[in-house]
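Researcher: I'd like a structural prediction for the single chain below. Treat it as a standalone chain; there are no partners to consider.
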Amino acid sequence: MEKRQRQATLLRIISEKEVETQEELRRCLAEAGITATQATISRDMRELKIRKGIAESGANCYYVGAAAPERHNSIFAQSVIAVDYAGNMVVIRCHAGMAPAACKIVDEKSFGLVVGTIAGDDTIFVLTRSEKHAIQLVEQLKTMYT
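Model: Treating it as a single chain, here is the predicted structure.
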């Protein structure tokens, strides 16, 4: 099986249905007549910039990187309850279990203001270089969930 064909099939599957695990993705590929190992699927996913996120249905499933901005905003908006800051620290309060997904979005977008992040179950701490950067970050984040 040619790599391009396998990757095209992988993208088609992810765009057509909510796939939650690599094992489920491997089964879908097998149903399409493509045999692939977990290592091959992982490599393909990395190359294709396939990530995991929360779909509108609430399922934690794979999506294609090109769909990320719209989906990121949706995931962030669904996850975040409040954003505030103190000094150069931004605190993002989330619904239970949603902080890691929201934190991933902050990490990926970075905004050029973030030094680092730490996510718990429902809280994210974001370190910025200055209070001015914290204020700017809070303003940007608020536009993503309000």
